[in-house]
């Protein structure tokens, strides 16, 4: 006996009421059973990724994962955070698997990737972060210029 979902060409699938309920339950579990990927979730995911050992320098991965389907306010917060790491050498507030300086050294790769998606956003975030570094020590400023000098 063939499964009831296989119908002849040109025919229509007519599930029983029990099959229809099962399909709806599965769809709800799969589609609606996960939190939205906007706002706080996307930002927290980036914060955890910044310190992970699974760091990827692939620009397409970075753009698709962190900027691809985010709203403009979330994009700003993501790019702003990465810019702050590159310039100010701050920690993430989560368990640090890498030093703040190593995290800052990884950030230009992310910034270049994000600049391919939205250059104006990256420029304004970097300008904001560079304005804050002037109040910091000179060594931090030199390291920031060394990391970002070719941008």
Folded structure, characterized:
By secondary structure, this protein is mainly α. Helix content is 64%, strand content 0%. α3 (59-67) packs across α5 (100-117), α4 packs across α5 and α4 (72-88) crosses α6. The mean pLDDT is 79.
Number of strands: 0
Please identify the oligomeric state.
single chain
Whole-Å distance between the termini? 65 Å
User: Would you list the SSEs in sequence order as H and E?
Assistant: HHHHHHH
Mean pLDDT: 79
Report the uncertain regions.
none
Number of DSSP helical runs: 7
Structural class: mainly alpha
Largest beta-sheet details: none
The level of helicity is 55-70%
Tell me the β content. under 5%
Task: Specify the overall morphology.
Answer: elongated
Question: How many whole angstroms does the radius of gyration measure?
Answer: 23 Å
Task: Summarize this entry quickly.
This protein has 151 residues and is mainly alpha-helical. The chain is built from 7 helices and no strands.
SSE topology sketch:
Elements: H1 17-32, H2 40-50, H3 59-67, H4 72-88, H5 100-117, H6 119-133, H7 138-148
Helix pairs in contact: 3-5, 4-5, 4-6, 5-6
